[in-house]
User: Which sequence fits this backbone?
């Protein structure tokens, strides 16, 4: 069995110095986002690297996760 850590590739939508809290809890979240983050999040393009991991066989499809208590389905 190969026990190595798998780092999931993803596009960065928050600056590296952003606080490590949920975006909805930040007072000014827009000041911590990257220039392309609105587009990436609106189009769900930030998920494309995960799709590539699935195509390569590094990941499997499980399905969407449940919405949080403060999100609408």
Assistant:
């Amino acid at each position: 069995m190969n026990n190595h850590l798998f780092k999931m590739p993803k596009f960065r939508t928050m600056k590296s110095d952003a606080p490590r809290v949920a975006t909805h809890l930040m007072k000014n979240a827009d000041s911590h986002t990257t220039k392309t983050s609105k587009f990436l999040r609106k189009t769900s393009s930030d998920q494309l690297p995960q799709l590539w991991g699935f195509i390569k066989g590094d990941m499997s499809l499980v399905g969407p996760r449940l919405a949080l208590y403060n999100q609408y389905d």
In short: The helical segments are 37-42, 48-56. The CA atoms of residues 33 and 58 lie 28 Å apart. The mean pLDDT is 79.
